[in-house]
Write a structure and sequence with these properties.
Largest sheet of chain A: 7 strands, parallel
Helix content of chain B: 10-25%
Strand content of chain A: 15-25%
Helix content of chain A: 25-40%
Order of helices and strands of chain A: EEEEEHEHHEEEEHEEHEHEEEEHEHHHH
Shape of chain A: elongated
Oligomer: heterodimer
Number of strands of chain B: 6
Radius of gyration of chain A: 24 Å
Radius of gyration of chain B: 14 Å
Order of helices and strands of chain B: EEEHEEHE
Largest sheet of chain B: 6 strands, antiparallel
Structural class of chain B: alpha+beta
Number of strands of chain A: 18
Largest interface: A-B, 27 and 24 residues
Distance between the termini of chain B: 23 Å
Number of helices of chain A: 11
Chain lengths: 404, 100
């Protein structure tokens, strides 16, 4: 080995990548570099040489046309000339997408699930993917969108109000607005928070009343409405339902109908302090298009309030989650929640992260069935071992890995 | 049955101690085995078997599902059991509630 060469870290090794990215037409690979996982351009090496007769260091790039192999690159560098001081692979810095929403830095959850690098890969597909939120509605005044962070007309489609049986899904509880903001607050609009689904079409259906109650019948109506719209517009469907209760025929039939329409059905596990997971979430054991979602806190520990059981698929952040609240008085304000923006905790808050990711996966991989979307999310989840699978399922969702 | 003050869509919410769940008053959901267009006779038969003064809250839709409100005097469990025994009925059950 020529004098002055520095052998890279002994741990240096090639890591397989699922879908190669490219840089200037070459494959980008992941390598372990001094303990960190970094991207490098396959076969390209930077060589630092001392220019003849001076102390100045000249930087050259050599191509080995071989997979990353330090010995091979060293020989190529030696052939290219003398005075080599050091050699290293061409490392890439990716500028992760960072939205300009002023409260983005307070959204710890988006960092935990690696949203920014994920957005570099895919931000959504408003024309072909429909995310339906079945909850207590969204902020409306006289039938018009009124929250500054939930005010993009083309983005939000007003579904039916199945509680009052009319066409104004106005939120009178606050829960629905919070869930909606997590998944789909308008991102990069210089206002408030960022939603995980940067670009997307969202149907908001009111199935839950001001007291936080929904029913097997309102759930069924909401599911059927979402299926009908997705069918009419030829869109792939993801449904989020952050509520639960007992098993019954009407509920099961509705969820099976969603499966027949190849909809991904995301359901919160429930907040029963370790007691069994409620329905519809617990259908995930037999219905492969259902994703049961538990919650973790900032330290990535399973939230103690979560329900648990073998039906758990994945977890997402669900403690102290910042999101939108109605900008008028609702029932949640009686419980101390602030208007416009506030923190909430619950598996209800974790589910919309997963639903938004399902919508991103369906945007990136249009041919994936609902079952494949679930498989993808589970396979790419960040392991939270040794925590029990009954509490964390396959682990914490990873937006970037799921989209690569 | 323990009565609570809560309401859902204007109807008093009750607690079913067997299912451990809240449900909407005396409402019962009935699902026929086959879609309505093919099943007019079954629908009429089901409606005839219901107690007097039963109110149809939501008429049978095209999929064969209806919601009825039984009179207070009716024995809910007995009515549900009778409906379930009808050959044209896929299921009959209380209108259960979910919570956040």
């Amino acid at each position: 080995m020529a004098e002055g060469y520095e052998q890279p870290n002994e741990d240096f090794q090639e890591y397989p990548v699922r879908t190669p990215r490219t840089f200037q037409g070459r494959r980008v690979i992941k390598i372990e570099w001094e303990g960190n996982s970094v991207d490098a351009v396959d076969g390209l090496w930077v060589v630092g040489r001392k220019a003849r007769g001076s102390e100045e260091i000249r930087i050259d790039v050599i191509s080995t046309d071989e997979p990353v192999d330090f010995a091979h690159a060293s020989k190529a560098a030696k052939r290219a000339g003398s005075g080599v001081r050091w050699i290293e692979p061409v490392l890439l810095d990716w500028v992760a997408a960072a939205p300009n929403d002023p409260r983005f830095s307070q959204q710890w959850a988006l960092d935990a699930i690696r949203a920014s690098p994920g957005w570099d890969v895919c931000k959504g597909d408003p024309a072909n993917v429909l995310l339906a939120i079945l909850d207590s509605g969204l902020p409306l005044v006289e039938g018009r969108l009124c929250h500054p962070d939930l005010k993009n007309k083309g983005r939000f489609l007003l579904g039916r109000n199945w509680i009052d049986d009319d066409e104004e899904p106005m939120d009178d509880n606050g829960h629905g607005t919070h869930v909606l903001g997590i998944a789909a607050a308008v991102t990069d609009n210089k206002v408030g928070v960022a939603g995980l689904l940067w670009e997307g079409t969202v149907l908001v259906v009111k199935t839950t009343d001001s007291h936080g109650q929904s029913s097997s019948l309102t759930l069924r109506s909401g599911v059927r409405e979402a299926i009908a719209l997705a069918r009419e517009r030829n869109m792939r469907l993801v449904i989020n339902y952050s509520a639960g209760g007992v098993d019954n025929h009407t509920k099961r039939a509705a969820i099976e109908e969603a499966g027949k329409a190849d909809a991904v059905f995301v359901a919160a596990a429930g907040n029963k302090n370790g007691n069994p997971i409620g329905y519809p979430a617990a259908y995930s054991q037999t219905l492969n298009h259902v994703i049961t979602v538990g919650a973790v806190d900032r330290e990535l520990q399973a939230a103690k309030f979560s329900s648990s059981g073998p039906q758990m698929n994945v977890v997402a952040p669900g403690v102290d989650i910042l999101s939108t609240m109605p900008n008028y008085h609702v029932r949640a304000n009686n419980e101390g929640f602030h208007p416009k923006y506030d923190l909430m905790s619950g598996t209800s808050m974790a589910a919309p992260f997963v639903a938004a990711l399902a919508a991103l996966i369906r945007a990136k991989y249009p041919d994936f069935s609902a079952e494949q979307v679930r498989d993808r999310m589970e396979e790419t989840a960040q392991s939270l071992s040794p925590q029990s699978a009954d509490w964390v399922g396959k682990g914490l969702i990873d937006v970037e890995q799921a989209l690569l | 049955v323990k009565r609570t003050e809560k309401q859902f869509r204007g109807t008093v919410v009750q607690y079913d101690s067997v299912a451990h769940a809240n449900h909407v008053g005396n409402e019962v959901i009935i699902q026929l085995k086959s879609p309505l267009a093919e099943n007019d006779e079954a629908r009429d038969q089901v409606l005839r078997e219901l107690p007097r003064h039963t109110k149809v809250q939501q008429a049978f839709d095209s999929s064969g599902l209806a919601v009825v409100a039984l009179p207070r005097s009716a024995n809910r469990e007995a009515v549900v059991k009778k409906l379930r025994n009808q050959s044209s009925v896929a299921y009959a059950e209380l209108h259960y509630l979910d919570t956040l």
